[in-house]
Amino acid sequence: MFETAAATDRPDYSLLTQQVSSILTGETALMTNAAQFSALVYHSLSDLNWAGFYLCTPAAKAGGEFSHDLLLGPFQGKVACVRIPFGRGVCGTTASQRSTILVPDVHAFPGHIACDSASNSEIVIPLIKDGKLYGVFDIDSPKLNRFTAEDQQGLEAMVAAFMQATDFSQISGA
Ligand code: SME
């Protein structure tokens, strides 16, 4: 069985990226791979209180600016908000701008959605494959300033390995 190393604030991201590819080898199912990926991240980085996916789904309100919303997917942590419209909160803003957002202090981010009052900093990475956005991967920490530029680079590499291994044909991308 695969053993996850102890959680640390300076993880070896190149090793973790290799682990993503090896854990997901031979399996392309989105929910399976997303569940495994959330568990790997949650148990490899210290000081996290939530790590998980919001995946694109057709918008609940038709005729708006965006054709999709974000719907809660596999995650580790406490019960979270289920549906987030594009452009709302850190996750929805990441989806609408299609680039990573690193938030040192969530209380200073206009429109931040507080699913867990313990969260103080956050990083959200878009899931993009072949030019389409399929959702975001969100990580929360109770520590202010938890995520550095090095974390961003390392986590983006892990997400890229997840995207490569996973088949998104079952959901509609934006
Ligand atoms: N804080 C996020 C909402 C998702 S939860 O943190 C799990 C946001 O502002 O979009």
TrEMBL record:
Protein name per its UniProtKB record: GAF domain-containing protein
Organism superkingdom: Bacteria
Homology family: Belongs to the free Met sulfoxide reductase family.
Annotated GAF domain residues: 45-163
